[in-house]
Write a structure and sequence with these properties.
With 163 residues, the protein is mostly beta strands. The chain has no helices and 15 strands. The chain has a 7-stranded antiparallel beta sheet with strand order 3-6-7-8-11-12-15, with no helix packed on it. A two-stranded antiparallel ribbon has the order 1-2. Strands 4-5 form a two-stranded antiparallel sheet. The two termini are 25 Å apart.
């Protein structure tokens, strides 16, 4: 199964095949992963030729980015419903402003999760920025006044009940 929205590939499961999508607007290529030993797999690879009419790169827009998020949930036994997730995100270097006077460095960030699902409820812990990577999300308003740092290692817990 795959769902496309605004030329972005969001989801693929084990029964789907490799999908390739190209957007004529910005020469973007998105690739979906499948045939993976997991319950769910979400991934994308993007290559953009993002250049303004005067030849500068757009601020805060990486030329290359990629992501992979996969989960596995135990289906049998005493631990049925226990699951794990792992994700990796890559964002390439970006121009910090529209004049291209400085660059924001690329980064790779890892996240993981553990969850337990039983009947109509779910408990989950997400571990974000697992290796406490120092990274920058971008420059606010695409100006030279600074950059927005990414969040340090954090743990987020959720409990949900489905009706």
């Amino acid at each position: 199964m795959q769902i496309n929205f605004n030329n972005y590939l969001y989801y693929t499961d084990l029964n789907s095949t490799v999908a390739l999508q190209k957007s004529e607007d910005n020469n973007e290529i998105q690739t979906a992963c499948s045939e993976f030993v997991a319950d769910k797999c979400l991934c994308g690879v993007t290559r953009r030729d993002n250049v303004t009419p005067i030849g500068n790169r757009f601020a805060n827009a990486p030329r290359n980015s990629a992501s992979l998020w996969t989960t596995y949930q135990l289906q049998t036994g005493n631990l049925k419903g226990l699951g794990f997730g792992l994700g990796v995100y890559y964002v390439g270097e970006r121009a910090g402003d529209s004049d291209n006077s400085y660059e924001i460095p690329s980064y790779v960030r890892f996240d993981t999760s553990i969850f337990y699902r039983r009947k109509n409820w779910r408990a989950q812990l997400n571990f974000q920025n697992l290796f406490n990577t120092e990274y920058y999300l971008g420059s606010p308003n695409s100006n030279r006044l600074g950059v927005t740092p990414g969040a340090p290692f954090s743990v987020v817990g959720t409990l949900s009940l489905q009706f």
